[in-house]
Amino acid sequence: MAKKSAEELAKKHREISIAEFFEKNRHLLGFDNPRRALMTAVKEAVDNALDACEEARIMPEVNVELIQLSETRFRMIVEDNGPGIIKAQVPKIFAKLLYGSKFHKLSATRGQQGIGISAAVLYGQLTTGKPATILSKTGKEKPAYQIKLKIDTQTNSPDIISDEEVSWEEKEHGTRIEIDFEGTYNKGRQSVDEYLKETAIVNPHVTIIYTNPEASQIIFPRATEEMPPEPTEIKPHPYGVELGRLMKMLQLTAAKTLQQFLTDEFVRVGSGTAKQICENSALLPKTSPKKISREMAENLYNGIQKTKIIAPPTDCISPIGEEALEKGLRKEINAEFYCATTRPPSVYRGNPFIIEAGLAYGGDQPGDKSIRIMRFANRVPLLYQQGACAITNAIQTTSWRSYGLQQSKSSLPIGPCSVVVHMTSVWVPFTSESKEALAHYNEIVKEIKLALQECGRKLASFVNKKRKIKEEGKKRGYIEKYIPHVADALKELLGLEEIKAKEIEDNLVEILEHTRGELEEIKVDNPDYDPELANIGKENKEDDEEEPEEKKVKKEKKEEKEDKQTTLS
Amino acid sequence: METEKPVVKKIREVAQRIYNKIRLIEQPQMEMPIRALSNVSYNDKDGYFELMGKKKVRTLTASTIKTFAQTLRMMNLSKEIIEKDDMATKREAYYVSKNWGDARFKEQPESDTVMDDIEAMMQVNREQIGFIPEEKGGDVAGKLVVIDKDADTGKEVRIDCTKFGSGAYSVPSSVEDLKFETEAKFILAIETAGMFQRLVKHNYWKKSNCILISLGGVPTRACRRFIRKLSDDNKLPVYVFTDGDFYGYFNIYRTLKVGSGNAAHINEYFCVPQAQFIGITPQDIIDYKLPTHPLKDVDIKRAKDALKNDPFVKHYKEWQKAADQQIKMKARAEQQALAKWGLNFVIDKYLPDKMKNSKTWLP
Fold this sequence. Notes:
CATH architecture of the largest domain in chain A: 2-Layer Sandwich
CATH class of the largest domain in chain A: Alpha Beta
Strand order of the largest sheet of chain A: 5-4-3-6-2-1-7-8-15
Radius of gyration of chain A: 30 Å
Number of helices of chain A: 17
Oligomer: heterodimer
Number of domains of chain A: 3
Structural class of chain A: alpha+beta
Distance between the termini of chain B: 51 Å
Strand content of chain B: 15-25%
Number of domains of chain B: 2
Largest interface: A-B, 23 and 29 residues
CATH class of the largest domain in chain B: Alpha Beta
Strand order of the largest sheet of chain B: 10-7-13-12-14-15
Number of helices of chain B: 13
CATH topology of the largest domain in chain B: Dna Topoisomerase Vi A Subunit, Chain: A, domain 2
């Protein structure tokens, strides 16, 4: 074989555009199979819509519609009542990967990288060749315009197919995106239905109107008029910055001196701390940031690690709250026992975060299967890659046996139980761009475990109480069962009359039951439970099954009450 | 009213005490001795295990009411059986309970335990409360005439134990009313049926003028009682011949000689204190160069347990020495191992030698 020269080989090397990269590696973004692609596309569009509304302090109302065009082809339409997008920005937002408002700041929003929605557009164009259609309007007096977009994958830049002004009278402001793509519609734990339901559960301030491919409409009405506090943006904490990022920040800063750079660009650094860092780095506070060499930057990096700096502020993140989390569980699961807990804020790599956990035990849940896990990050449900997630790992390495569940070593516990875990942070560390699994940081796993243990202890006392009541019931059964035998045997042994035997029975009841007190009862008593909601996202085959009698009764009751939840066909 | 039998009287007394408590709306109790090795001591003077004072009190509560009801039911069954002068096997008693609804026994061991409790509570033996075991008493051959009664006519039946050929007379489950006629010089009790067969086949009893009894493992109560009565009535010494292992020493021989922990309340009558152990001793294994099997961990555990907890072993230094010797040897030998020196070595050499030399015995 002829040898090739370095020059020849060099011809083959060329730059890869990020769009091209993801075109080939779409699984990294969650578009690996048609079923997951459908869920991911809806998820990216809805996350964007909710972020936009919340940033503009508008109570979100999102309309999601899936239309089946052919056996494998779907049209997704997602429309919000957000602030709208100015015309010049639309192409880049929807048709350029890694273009976004959130990557360079630290705040607890759903989106982070600016990949998601463009990836959905890319996927649509890849599977159908069709452009995405964006409709947006920014105010009552402003015109609406409709733009059809594709992505030029070689350059990772928007390719505008058409651009026209249209009338959109019914909307004061908002954005609507329409994409056609290949997909498969299923129900089940990893479906669009489930995703939207779980989103509604942890975002009680949101209204979602969802029309599925079977053309039945489900409305998830908002349950509170209270908007969660606005996620405030914070500057990075010195502990969370890596060397490369530090060098880039030094180049880009407007600060004139190193001390000023440290106090301006970082949180929790005052002039005292800044001087301390300089001293620990053997650098002069007056050094110009632009003149800091790589070696000096490394000194600075090490100096930061040596300096004691207080933890970042934590008021920039807001948890769902124990009450709301428990309420969500009550709606979704008909159980005997609920509890939820919100941990105090903690920090990993300079990023503040909060872990919340809750669980529902008993009731309708099957006792012989692994527990159900519901994972959330910044109020977004995580439906895929459960096995790779730090939440799953934390659940597996928590000892559930002492809390009354069965568990073989380092695996998911078994029992009639559902566990929900939510992480909120200014930067949620995902294992990949599809954002389905939390990375395993020790600090995070530890916090999750602490939250689970808190819930577990409450669970244990409930399970114990339940067991005691069961045993007590059994003992009472025993007493009733065997008293007549004692009386009967004594009657025969001593040749007593029937009336004496009756007296023995009465006396024995008094002797044995007198001290036992009232028997408590544990029942499923959960007025918040919403069987229709709970059914959303369940496998199709379950629909064919006969509904248990009591469930039917409950359902009828709900209908009488004209529940907020409505299903129209 | 005809005179009440003492056991029936006792049963009525227990029931009456319980009834009186219930009338006063107080928790009734049953009291019985604990049946275990931990609650017996070795009575050196009379040579048997006797009960110490430890008692188990069963108070009527929600968790004991089932056993309580079953015990009363069983007492009532016992009373009925005695009054009718009848008998029931343990298995039959278990089946009778199937008629008690919720108070019935699930498995026979449950009814056996309740039966043993009543027996201990009454301080009598099982036969006296009307229950008999199904177990066989043991086989007998040799110069003995057993005088029994015909079940129908009540006439005396004379059973000549020399006339069973290669077979044997079987000890009945109740031996109290038997009478004996014999000119034999001693009784030889043998652990295994195989060795018994060999000795019977070669008329060993004729040659050495004795009565052969096969124990068939740990001797049953009837077998112990039979040997005791036979020995007492005719002043015959009793020699015991078992495998050379701890099961032979501390389960078979010990139980025959001094009784068991489980039935300590009746050991006084169901033991043979005059019994002597002739072999196979640990020293025999060495002296006769017998082929051996290695001791298993369970064997050693059994021996150590006996050394520590068995009042009989704790009383006899000779047995402690023998046990230590065998633990060190790490080996055991079966009776049949004597066949190494020829099939009839046991008859021609081993037994005659051992009989002559009481120094080779163990107490």
